[in-house]
Amino acid sequence: MCLAVPGRIISIDASVPDLKMARVDFGGMIKDICVQWVEVSVGDYVLAHAGMAISIVDEERAKETLADFDAIARSLENPS
User: Fold this and answer.
1) Domain 5-77: which topology?
2) What CA–CA distance (Å, rounded) separates 9 from 62?
3) Residues 15-38, mean pLDDT to the nearest whole number
4) Which one of 17, 32, 62, 79 is separated from 72 by 20 to 30 angstroms, measured CA to CA?
5) Helix (H, G, I), strand (E, B) or coil at 5
6) Cβ(30)–Cβ(54) under 8 Å?
7) DSSP secondary structure string, 21-63?
8) What's the confidence (pLDDT) of residue 73?
9) Extents of the domains making up the chain
10) What are phi and psi of 32, to 5 degrees?
11) Considering the chain, what is the average pLDDT of its residues?
C-alpha cells in the first residue's frame, strides 16, 4: 500500500527544461517535488507520492487530511 500526502504549492520552478519542480508545504514541512506531469498553479493542493505530484486535490479535503495526520501525530506523542 502506498501513501500520498496532500500539500499546497507555494512556488513553481520551471528553469530546468523537462523537469518542472515546485516547493510544497505539507502542513509546515516544506519539500521540493516534481510537478512535471500535473498542470498546477501556485496555491493548488496536490497529492504527492515519492517526490512527485500525482494529482490535484480539493483544498477542503487536503486540509481535512492534514488535520487528521496532525491528530495522529499528537496521539502518538501523548498516548492516553
Assistant:
1) SH3 type barrels. (2.30.30)
2) 12
3) 94
4) 32
5) strand
6) no
7) EEEEEETTEEEEEE-TTS---TT-EEEEETTEEEEEE-HHHHH
8) 87
9) 5-77
10) -95, 130
11) 93
